[in-house]
Amino acid sequence: MKFFLDSASxxxxxxxxxxxxxxxxxxxxxxxxxxxxxxxxxxxxxCGLVPGHVSLETTSATAEGIVREGxxxxxxxxxxxxKVAISPEGLKAVKILEESGIKTNVTLxxxxxxxxxxxxxxxxxxxxxxxxxDDVGHEGMLVVRQILEIFMRYSFRTQVIVAxxxxxxxxxxxxxxxxxxxxxxxxxxxxxFRHPLTDQGLKTFLEDWGRVKREVVDGASEESGRTQQPS
Length: 231
What we know:
Number of strands: 8
CATH topology of the largest domain: TIM Barrel
């Protein structure tokens, strides 16, 4: 399973890289805006750091506009994937971009039907938003299961990026059902390391080791004192 970081923050990307977990990055206009940096230079830096795909989102409402944006975005890095919101115009643009060799990621997917039409349009990736589905009382992971079943049955090459991940359990569930990619915030990626029993165990080990070192130092001091006493 590949781990993507859902962020446009250079420090966060560097942190994920230091853990040897980062396979790619997904961004959106909101994440980009938070960085308060020139768009093109920020994206080029991200693309230079990340070993895998970097998803960059388009904002136009027409196929022509999306294609123009996608063509520009694709020039900012060889690993760029153009994110396109699911819509009839979006899927027109997806077909054009894919046929020109530009990978696409169809986003804001909330149903298996939406993923199906995106795959038929030739999208390289689809991103079902499971957290947002959970927020409104639907089972987000059920949609992912349905998408994976459909893609396997019809041999679609479109890959599923499980998105809008809220917590480590989402990552676990996605891995158990065979989702190829999960994209998550840094706090969720870091939480994959954590467990209260591990934290307690490390605390106990360090406390015990501290006592051992003190005993060694005290013992050495006593021995030194004895050997220095006059006979």
